[in-house]
Amino acid sequence: MTEMKKLKVVVIGGGSSYTPELVEGLLARHHELPVSQLWLVDIDAGMEKAKVIADLTKRMIAKTGCNIEVFLTTDRKQALMDADFVCSQFRAGRIEARLRDERIALKYRVIGQETNGLGGFSNACRTIPIALEIAKEMEALCPNAWLLNFTNPSGMVTEALTKYSTIKTVGLCNVPVNMERGAAEMLGVPRDEITMQIAGLNHLVWARKVLHNGQERSREVLEQLVAGNDRMTPKNIPPFRWDEGLLKSLDMVPCAYLRYYYQSRDFLDKEFAASSNKSNRADLVAKVEAELLEIYKDPTLDTKPQLLEERGGAYYSEAACELMNSIYNNKRSIMHVNTRNNGAIQGLPDDCAVEVSSLITSSEIIPLNVEPFETGTLRLIQLMKEFETLTVEAAISGDINLAKRALMLNPIVDSGAHIDEALQETIRENLDFMPKFAHALNQ
Ligand code: G6P
C-alpha cells in the first residue's frame, strides 16, 4: 500500500471559538484524512484568545493520540506555504464589528443580520478585500491548495473568490447540514437515510427534494413545520413560527433564513424589540463567546464543550471536514456547497456563486443540475444575486453608487433617504476596513 500524503491544514481566524468544532471533525476522520500539521493563524489583537484555543486544540489531539503538530502564528504567509487545505473562518473587525452592524442597521430600522441585509452588506465590504488578499498570497505560496470558505457572508465572499482568484474555492455553510439532520429527526428516521437536493444562494436555499430512501417526503416535513415541530432552524435565528399559509403553498422546504424574506417585517420587529434590552444576536454571541473562553481555559478540558452547540454554526465541521475528506480521497460524494453555477440553476449567470448539491471530486466540484424554479422564487433569487454581485463589485472598487444600487435592490432593506445616512455611518464606523469608500463621506 502506498503511504498516505501528510496534509497541512491552515485555519485563518484560528482563534475563533468555533475551532474546537473543526478539530473534532478532523480527529474523527484522521484515519482517512492524514493531517500532520494544523496551523492556526490569527491577528495580534486576537492572540490572547487564540492561545487558549491552541492549547485546547493540543489537548483534544493528545487525547486521541493522533500525530498532529499544532502551530499558532500571526505570520499568515509562513502558514500558507505549501498548504493543502486552507479554511477561512475569520471575522473582519471581530465581534465588535458585528455588534456595530446590528446597532447601525436597527437605528435606521433595517435588518442588521450578518449575511443578508444592511449588516450583510457591511460585512461583505469589510471582508472581501481581505479574502482576496489571502487568495493572492495562496496563489504565490500554495497554488494547488483548496480554499474552504466559511467566512461570512459566505455566499458573497465565495463569489468574489471564484471570480477574482485562480485558487480552487468552495464556500460552506452548515444550514443544509442542519436541514438534513432536522428532517431526519422530524421524520423519525436515521440521518443517513435522508438525501436532500439543495438549491439557491447561501442563506437563501430550499430543499427541492427530501428523499427518504428514495421516497419523496417534503410534504410531511412541511406539515411538521406548520405544526411547529421545527428542528431545522439554527440557534442564531430567533425561534418564531413559520407563516402557515406560506408553507402550505410551497412544494419545497425553505431554509430558516427565508423567513427574513417571507416574514421580513416580523423579523425586524423582533430584532427591534431585542435591541431595547441588548439581546440581539451579536450581544448574545459576545456573551456566549466570553463564557466559552472561560470553559476552554480549563486545563482538564480535552473535548468540545456542549455550550458550543448554542452557536448557530454548530455542525459546520461536518460540512468542512467531510468536504476535505471527499476532496482528498476523491470520494465523488454529493455535498451541498457554494460553487460556480455553471448552468446548474437556470436563470442565473454561469459565473456567479450558488449553493447547490454538488459532486465532490479531487479535481473539481461539479454542481448538479436543478429543476427550474417557478417564476416567483426565481425572481427572488435573481434579485438577491444582483444585490450580491453589486455588493462584491462595490466592496472591491469602493464605488458608492454601486453600493446604493445594491442596497436599493435588496428586498429586505427598504429604500429611502435613511439608507444614505445608514451608508455614511457604516463607512465612517468601518473606515479602517473600507478605505476605498472614504471619498464618499460627507464632510
Ligand atoms: C448559521 C450560519 C452561519 C453563521 C452562524 C452564526 O449557522 O449558517 O453562517 O456563521 O449561524 O452563528 P452565531 O452563533 O455566530 O450567531
UniProtKB/TrEMBL annotation:
All residue ranges annotated as the Glycosyl hydrolase family 4 C-terminal domain in the record: 198-413
Signal peptide: none
Keyword Chaperone included in the entry's annotation: no
Major enzyme class: hydrolase
Residues reported in the UniProt entry to bind substrate: R98, N152
PANTHER family reported for this sequence: 6-PHOSPHO-BETA-GLUCOSIDASE (PTHR32092:SF5), 6-PHOSPHO-BETA-GLUCOSIDASE-RELATED (PTHR32092)
Protein name, UniProt field: 6-phospho-beta-glucosidase
Organism encoding this protein: Vibrio chaetopteri
